[in-house]
Amino acid sequence: MLARRLKSLQEVPIQIADWPPVYADLRLMNSHYWFLGTPFANSPIEIDEQMVMRRFVAEGDVVFDIGANLGVHTALLSRLAGTTGRVFAFEPNPELHPTLAMTIEAMPNATLCRVALSDDDGQTTFFVPNDHAMGSLSDWTALEPMTELREKLALGKARAISVQQKRIDDLVAGGILPQPDFIKCDVEGAELKVFRGAVKTVNRPDAPVILFEAGPESAGGFGLAMTDASEFLASLPRPGYQFFEIGHGGALRSVQPSDLKKQNQNVLAVPRERS
Fold it and tell me: Residues 226, 228, 230, 231: is their CA dihedral positive or negative?
């Protein structure tokens, strides 16, 4: 209630280790967790994924953070890529843009891209439930399998927002984006759409390493199986992607797309030349 009236509570700096501050808007309920915990000695979320990022992102790399949300991963990736690298943070939710822009402003090597990445170009609808981290190009939190969790998390009815969508291939071919070395993709079920729109960018021997999320419920919002995104990457002939399930402590277990469990998990796709 106070945050709706006080601007200072709409741009609160969250400190994680010695990273640049990540700004949060306390009008958004998810931000309260970060506010109550700051300063954090280390990132309190997705530690396993961040350990993998530390191993695969090097000084000078070009990195795409697709589904940047508050910018927590963007902050780490910016440090890893260093002064000679570049980070492009993609976030279509306009409610997050003011604080995300403040976060990225402190990173000379980072750029905010206020679009959704997909396999199409033009305006589309983006659905945002009360948990903005679950925003997606599909209203997947309204599906029947999500009923119990939707009530438990008080997700409510998702708000429909008009956003711009772009294809990675078009942006790279037009010189707007450079060829990436590493892609982190967490887009709540739309991973396959992102990869389809980037087929030329990833179907090459020097393809980027890709860290992405796979989940049955979010993929189901697009009428897909959670293995479809992995199987698409596996079908590309030139990179020869190998797949690894990310476990505790960033441990990597070799898997085939068909081995993925029927639950949310993070997957690392590594091209043959970097295996």
Answer: positive
Residue linked to tokens 């910016």: 78
The enclosing H or E element of 235 equals: helix 228-235
Residue 130, judged by CB atoms within 10 A of its CB (0-12, 13-18, 19+), counts as middle
What is the residue extent of each domain of the chain? Answer: 44-274
The residues near 120 (Cβ < 8 Å, ≥ 6 apart) are: 165, 167, 193, 197
Is-contact 145 221, C-beta < 8 A?
no
Nearest CA-CA partner of 95 in 50, 159, 145, 46: 159
Q: If you classify domain 44-274 with CATH, what class do you get?
A: alpha beta
Q: How many CB atoms lie within 10 A of CB 42?
A: 9
Q: Are 142 and 128 in contact (CB under 8 A)?
A: no
Tokens encoding 88: 């492009």
Q: Residue 211 forms beta bridges with which residues?
A: 184, 268
Q: What is the pLDDT of residue 262?
A: 74
139-186 pLDDT, tens digit each = 989 888 888 888 888 888 989 999 999 999 999 999 999 999 999 999
Helix (H, G, I), strand (E, B) or coil at 224: coil
Query: How far is 265 from 246, CA to CA, in rounded Å?
Result: 8
What is the predicted pLDDT for the residue at 264? 82
Peptide linkage before 237 cis (omega within 30 of 0): no
pLDDT in tens, 195-230: 999 999 999 999 999 999 999 999 999 999 999 999
| 132 sits in which H/E element | none
